[in-house]
Design brief:
The protein has about 475 residues and is α+β, with helices and mostly antiparallel strands. The strands form 2 sheets. The protein has a 6-stranded antiparallel β-sheet, with no helix packed on it. Strands 4-3-5-6-9 form a 5-stranded mixed β-sheet, with no helix packed on it. Helix 4 runs antiparallel to helix 5, helix 5 runs antiparallel to helix 6 and helix 12 packs across helix 13. The longest helix has about 45 residues. It starts with a strand and ends in an 11-residue tail after the last helix.
């Protein structure tokens, strides 16, 4: 049983009591501890959970906007103590938690064996599965920890503990079996929970792809943030119990999923769930390139300029994936010219080219010099990364296509929203899901990544056998 006593906020003076093991906290209609949307703006729709786990109460932040605080410090998951105060969002309402403790001597005796078995199992694992020689020491230490609460009971009950020590070997083996079975069930539950959350995340992202109303999009994204936070917490809990299983789930998906994750990891731009429509468009562009009749011709031209390109990009520490902008722009054609006046392999405008020291006038146009324009393009992309951050490398590439003024305009619009200056609001994935970027720009990024992935598969496609 837990009691939530409201010390401030819209529910001040009220007390919520529940026997449930999980209580959802927030402003949404399905929350067990619900706050008023207008009077408690610091509280997210699905802000946090009070969770009873392993005999203890915890507060878990579920990817809220303003955080969950204990004594002014933001926490992700915190074990609660009797009478502790929790702030729901920085500057938000304050609650005090109280809960019933029902352990008796018999319960302590049972827990004693389980605690000992877990520690014995840990030491056995460290010893490579062989007896560690520490069993008796572990049992003695565990008994000492609970002695104060148990020995205070009747002598008859204390005999149970003494008897347990006398038969420690048999009890340990039996309880170890129980613990292993419990751990197996817990792992299975966590796996099922993550799979269920992943399906919910996929469904929400599908709805976001079809939605155009800004308010409904914002509501769906908040739900997505909550689900993603829960999925990450579940994966972290699984990692503590079974690292191999957690790693396998984290790397789940097809070959394209793994290639996307590998590229994003280079830029610290990982996201828990890549929007299905982004992956769909990426696959479309990959298929388009693979089936293009001039693929071998373009790849041969790319190989001609690639040593020079990677040299200039490496000089500024730019990952080579960004150089595939030249494939998306012109298929590495140094003589290309657009109807609006952009020119060269990198399709730089006159103004941009001149700002990086290229000569563009009636007598000479250095944009048609592959090496000079590549050097300028690398500096331009490096400047965009410096402005947006390496984790927003896709936003930098989008800006290359859209023009930095267009992307800055979008970011300045976001800045007018509550918390619009925060990193997660300026992230490419946020702008992509919320449809803040133009369709052409949304399509440009998967187009660039498609070229990078096709080049990675050059051997499989037979492209590296070209003369």
């Amino acid at each position: 049983m837990i009691r939530i006593i409201h010390l401030s906020g819209s529910q001040q003076g009220k007390t919520a009591t529940s026997a449930k093991s999980t209580l959802r906290v927030g402003r949404a209609a399905d929350c067990d501890v619900r706050f008023d949307k207008e009077r408690d703006p610091k509280v997210s729709n699905h802000h946090a959970e009070f969770l009873f786990e392993d005999g203890c109460w915890f507060v878990v932040d579920t990817a809220s906007t303003n955080g969950t605080l204990i004594e002014g410090r933001r926490v992700a998951k915190h074990r609660l103590h009797q009478g502790e105060q929790v702030q729901i969002g920085a500057g938000g309402p304050l609650v005090r938690v109280e809960f019933d403790a029902k352990d008796n001597a018999d319960t302590t005796t049972a827990k004693l064996a389980e605690i000992a078995a877990k520690r014995v199992a840990q030491e056995r694992a460290k010893a490579g599965g062989m007896p560690s020689g520490k069993t008796m020491l572990i049992m003695a230490s565990t008994i000492k920890q609970v002695q104060h609460s148990t020995k205070a009971k009747t002598a008859k009950r204390w005999v149970k503990v003494v008897a347990l020590v006398a038969g420690v070997a048999a009890v340990t083996v039996a309880v170890m079996g129980i613990v292993i079975a419990q751990q197996k069930r817990q792992i299975e539950q966590l796996v099922k929970q993550k799979e269920h959350l992943d399906k919910e995340i996929e469904a929400v992202e599908a709805l976001m792809n079809e939605e155009s109303d800004p308010e409904r999009l914002a509501s769906l994204e908040e739900k997505l943030d909550t689900l993603t936070g829960n999925a990450k917490s579940t994966l972290a809990a699984l990692d503590k119990s079974d690292k191999r299983k957690a790693a396998a789930l984290a790397e789940s998906g097809d070959a394209l999923d793994r290639q996307i994750r590998e590229i994003l990891a280079k830029f610290d731009a990982s996201t828990y769930a890549v929007p299905p429509i982004f992956k769909e468009r990426l696959k479309f562009h990959i298929d388009e390139l693979v089936n293009a009749p001039n693929l071998k011709f373009v790849y041969r031209r790319k190989q001609r300029y690639w040593p020079m390109i990677t040299r200039e990009f490496s000089a500024l520490g730019l990952p080579e994936e960004m150089a595939y902008v030249a494939w998306a722009e012109t298929q590495f054609d140094p003589k290309a010219k657009s109807p609006v006046g952009a020119a060269g392999m990198w399709q730089m405008t006159t103004t941009t080219a001149q700002s990086y020291g290229l000569r563009v006038d009636a007598n000479m146009d250095e944009r048609y010099d592959p090496e000079r324009e590549t050097k300028a393009a690398a500096r331009h992309l490096a400047n965009l990364l410096a402005e947006y951050g390496t984790d927003s490398f896709m936003l930098a590439m989008a800006s290359y296509n859209r023009g930095e003024a267009g992307v800055r305009r979008v970011l300045h619009q976001i800045a007018r929203e509550p918390g619009g200056f925060r990193k997660e609001k300026r992230d490419f994935w946020h702008l992509y899901r919320m449809k803040k970027l133009p369709e052409e720009t949304r399509e440009y990024v998967p187009k660039v990544l498609a070229a990078a992935i096709v080049s990675r598969d050059a051997k499989k496609l037979g492209l590296d056998e070209l003369d």
